[in-house]
Amino acid sequence: MPDIKAIQNALRAGKLDGWLFYDFHHRDPIAYRVLGLPAGMATRRWFYLIPARGEPRKLVHRIESSMLDSLPGEKILYAGREELRKGMARLLGRGKTLAMQYSPLNAIPYVSLVDAGTVELVRSFKNKVVTSAELVQMFEARWSPDQLQTHLQAGRVMDGIIQQAFGQAGAYVRQRKALSEYALQQWIVEQFRSNLLMTEDPPIVAVGPNSGNPHYSPQAGSSQPIREGDFLLIDMWAKTRAPGSVYYDITWVGYLGDKVPERYVKIFNIVKEARDRAVALVQDAVKDNQRIRGWQVDRAARDVIRKAGYGKYFVHRTGHSIGVEVHGNGANMDGLETLDDRSIVPHTCFSVEPGIYLPEFGVRSEVNVYVADRQARVTGAIQNEIIPILA
Predict the structure, then answer these.
(1) pLDDT bucket at 173, cuts 50 / 70 / 90
(2) Sign of CA dihedral 135, 140, 145, 150
(3) 321: domain range?
(4) What is the structure's pLDDT at 39?
(5) Listed residues 140, 174, 201: the one ending a domain
(6) What is the rounded average pLDDT for all residues in the chain?
(7) Same domain, yes or no: 107 and 147
(8) DSSP 3-state assignment of 263?
């Protein structure tokens, strides 16, 4: 059950007349999570309006009339398209400013879930549609205390697994036994399973030039062998199996030798400085109760890499929101792919993961930052130098 009163307070604070939820064939998972809806049959369109004042209203098809029965408010039924329009007029009224899961110019794709035709339909009743991005942060992206604990629990286990993975690679190389990127990836997946962790996708394990591909995915039968002298990147994300658990997401790098070559150290130190600069900016802003936006964090990290002469090799945003999905629906640390103008709000978490991707190798260093009311902190171990795996 959504906290209707809290949502209405937020609507009034934002000078909005209502938050209009809409779905068809489960296209908007945000709506189901915010409203606490079960994932029942949704073969017909439904609408749910939470007004800034007064009782909510719902519009549902006659053959799925119970779709929103778990939610409070007046029920309006429709079947044919003319009845739908009459129901919409009754649901919405005219001249209202309504938030929807919409983002102007698709600036924030995670929130841009309502199709253009439905936005046109709502506007045809002389209503204004604005983005719900800030509301989504407040009512979907913020963690409960229990969710924070699931994150920390997963982090403690994963910080150990990633060190063990580097150790596993070193053991195979010392013994001159064959080990591929894919085999190490599957070893990590098995560690997740035995430690009761779950993930939607397997981790990234990449050596040499493959580490220069930010979303490289090793495949059975075609991945590269891991050998002495290789630069190794491991990026992994998982969560506990507890209901509502949230992800932990990290990237570390190592070198299959006893002394890390200077060319790797140089790039790592630039990436590390970019990471630390971004984290410090967030921590200082939160401590001083200053508003900070996602794109500003991205700029802090990107400026370090750009000034070092590697700007064109940093090809993705600095970080993403983390939630029940590894890429959550809060503010992203992004001034490159989009200009994420959302404020970072308390009780949310995001990654900080700058990278430099060269043809020969790539370096990424990723930590998770959780923002409390007056403090922001990295939630797990922090890599400060490349691991010399055979040392």
Answers:
(1) very high
(2) negative
(3) 142-388
(4) 81
(5) 140
(6) 97
(7) no
(8) helix
Give CA–CA dist 298/287, Å, rounded.
19
Is 218:240 a contact under the CB 8 Å cutoff? Answer: no
- The verdict on 232 and 353 lying in the same domain is yes
Task: Enter the tokens of residue 252.
Answer: 């570390």
Please spell the DSSP secondary structure of 330-375, one letter per residue: S--B-SSSS---PBP-TTEEEEE--EEE-SS-EEE-BEEEEE-SS-
Tokens linked to 141: 């992206």
Report yes or no: 131 and 109 within 8 Å, Cβ to Cβ: no
Q: Do 226 and 324 share a structural domain? A: yes
Q: Name the domain count of the chain.
A: 2
User: What is the per-residue pLDDT across 322-377, written as a single tens digit (0 to 9) for each?
Assistant: 999 999 999 999 999 999 999 999 999 999 999 999 999 999 999 999 999 999 99
> In the prediction, which pLDDT does 386 show?
98
Instruction: Let me know whether 132 and 187 are in one domain.
Output: no
Banded model confidence at residue 193, pLDDT cuts 50, 70, 90: very high
Same domain membership, residue 170 and residue 131: no
Determine the 3-state secondary structure of 139 from DSSP.
Answer: helix
Residues 147 and 264 in one domain: yes
Question: Domain containing 100 — which CATH number?
Answer: 3.40.350.10
- Nearest in space to 125 (alpha carbons), one of 101, 91, 159: 91
User: Which tens digit of pLDDT belongs to each residue from 234-268?
Assistant: 999 999 999 999 999 999 999 999 999 999 999 99
Q: Report the 10 Å Cβ neighbour count for 78.
A: 23
Rounded to an integer, what distance in angstroms lies between the CA atom of residue 169 and that of residue 379?
26
State whether 159 and 236 are in the same domain: yes
Is 0.85 surpassed by the pTM of this model? yes
**136 and 118 assigned to the same domain:** yes
Considering 116, 140, 164, which residue would you say is the last residue of a domain?
140
pLDDT score for 1 = 81
Give the separation between CA 26 and CA 117, rounded to whole angstroms: 17
